[in-house]
């Protein structure tokens, strides 16, 4: 359902041959382990800086086996998770816009971002509404507030509880996730970055003479290392005492029938917190694939990302569809597609981006906790800055320090 981004990249066999040949030859300024969401952005920013850069991934570009697939990702500034994210979200909007301008040189190329607006709904004291209001107040964000009647008037399909309110952020929307990863990689390649797909990194070590990254196809050397391995991160961070829990998440697309077409077309992104704390979101139909409706809460623990069970989780689907029966009335829905993805949860639900405590030339970004894609251009940029010896107090709240014992 998404374009194949393997065009112009090597087959697994050719990748292996190339990796074997390259491994002994070159010394890079930076090696990036994993080129999904964060890794692709890190490669772009490093290549833009003029660093010689190598990205290695166990799969291909914009693949569907990690955490950066499934057509769309929500992007918003009115951040219920914490007001500290708001300046980063503002920067992310600018960085996506910059990437989009470089990427979209022909009118037929699809934009990376769709400004559909985001409507967040819940009781005033819910985590979502309370958090959105706090961020909006601290950062002077302009939001429109709606009663259930006003929401019903604008979106008759939505059945909003009488004691809930809606907060609408018109500038927000969603990103085309695979296109974003592919655009970062294409722009990185244009600036000289080298990519090796279908090559599994086994481990890395740092010595006086620099860094070595050992893969199943050979060993690569560099001055610096960025670990962007998503749900697989823990295996590259031995000895760092952080808790990371991987959970499986299901993404579902539905054909919605029996509603007037205009309600589907005009639909913004909707994020609802129910009174029992369950959170669901709907992303409008894109490219005729149906409306995406998913449960943000819940999900099963994945012991090993290599062994992720990709079968449809019937219990999750039942809860999702019960939500649709309740909240999307005057409609009939039919599941057209599901896909399994992973959230890598940190202990407090906030990202972890930092330098390695023992090796200043190694940086990592992990624990994106199911809300990190929108920030990937910012995280990629900060990874490169950190590896260049710079500090940025804006991301201090995401550093390892918060887990250190006093
Ligand atoms: C269902 C779902 C919905 C989401 N919705 C949103 C949303 O609406 N908005 C939002 O902002 N965020 C959202 N997120 C979160 C966001 O998508 C993720 O946090 C983000 O994409 C993770 O990027 P990453 O680079 O950490 O991981 P990935 O993109 O998975 O990249 C990790 C890469 O490392 C590679 N790798 C791992 N191990 C090795 C190895 N040994 N050798 C070589 N390569 C390796 C993998 O193959 C992979 O390509 C959602 C996530 C999911 C799953």
TrEMBL record:
Enzyme kind, highest EC tier? oxidoreductase
Q: Which domain of life is it from?
A: Bacteria
Under Gene3D superfamilies, the record lists: D-Amino Acid Oxidase, subunit A, domain 2, FAD/NAD(P)-binding domain
Q: Does the keyword RNA-binding apply?
A: no
In terms of InterPro entries, this protein maps to: FAD-dep_OxRdtase (IPR006076), FAD/NAD-bd_sf (IPR036188), MTOX (IPR045170)
Quote the EC number. Answer: 1.5.3.1
This protein's UniProt keywords: FAD, Flavoprotein, Oxidoreductase
Q: Name one GO molecular function term.
A: sarcosine oxidase activity
Among NCBIfam families, the record links this protein to: PRK11259.1
Protein name per Swiss-Prot or TrEMBL: Monomeric sarcosine oxidase
Record organism: Mariniblastus fucicola
Q: What are the top taxonomic ranks of the organism?
A: Bacteria, Pseudomonadati, Planctomycetota, Planctomycetia, Pirellulales
């Amino acid at each position: 359902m998404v374009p194949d981004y393997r065009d112009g990249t090597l087959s697994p066999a050719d990748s292996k041959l190339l990796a074997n040949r390259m491994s002994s030859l070159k010394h890079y300024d930076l090696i990036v382990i994993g080129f999904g969401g964060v890794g692709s952005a890190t490669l772009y920013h490093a290549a833009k800086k003029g660093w010689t850069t190598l990205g290695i991934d166990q799969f291909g570009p914009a693949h569907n086996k990690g955490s950066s697939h499934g057509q769309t990702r929500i992007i918003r500034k009115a951040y219920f998770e914490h007001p500290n994210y708001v300046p980063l979200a503002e920067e992310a909007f600018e960085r996506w816009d910059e990437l989009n301008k470089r990427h979209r040189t022909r009118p037929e190329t699809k934009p990376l971002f769709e400004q559909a607006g985001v409507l967040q709904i819940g009781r005033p004291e819910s985590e979502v509404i309370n958090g959105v209001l706090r961020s909006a107040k601290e950062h002077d964000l302009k939001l429109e507030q709606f009663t259930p009647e006003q929401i019903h008037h604008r979106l008759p399909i939505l059945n909003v509880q009488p004691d809930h309110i809606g907060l609408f952020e018109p500038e927000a929307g969603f990103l085309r996730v695979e296109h974003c990863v592919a655009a970062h990689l294409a722009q990185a390649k244009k600036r000289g970055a080298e990519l090796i797909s279908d090559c599994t990194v086994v481990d890395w070590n740092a010595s006086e003479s620099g860094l070595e990254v050992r893969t199943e196809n050979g060993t690569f050397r560099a001055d610096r290392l960025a670990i962007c391995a998503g749900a697989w991160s823990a295996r590259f961070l031995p000895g760092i005492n952080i808790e990371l829990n991987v959970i499986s998440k299901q993404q579902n697309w539905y054909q919605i029938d029996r509603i007037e077409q205009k309600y589907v077309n005009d639909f913004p992104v909707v994020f609802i917190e129910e009174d029992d704390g369950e959170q669901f979101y709907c992303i409008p139909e894109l490219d005729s694939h149906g409306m995406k409706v998913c449960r943000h809460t819940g999900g099963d623990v994945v012991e090993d990302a290599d062994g992720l069970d990709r079968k449809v989780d019937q219990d999750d689907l039942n809860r999702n569809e019960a939500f649709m029966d309740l909240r999307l009335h005057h409609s009939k829905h039919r599941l057209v597609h599901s896909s399994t993805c992973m959230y890598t949860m940190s202990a407090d639900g906030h990202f972890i981006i930092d330098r390695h405590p023992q090796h200043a030339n190694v940086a990592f970004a992990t624990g994106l906790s199911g809300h990190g894609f929108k920030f990937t251009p910012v995280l990629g940029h900060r990874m490169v800055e950190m590896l260049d010896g710079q500090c940025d107090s804006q991301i201090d709240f995401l550093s390892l320090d918060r887990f250190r014992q006093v």
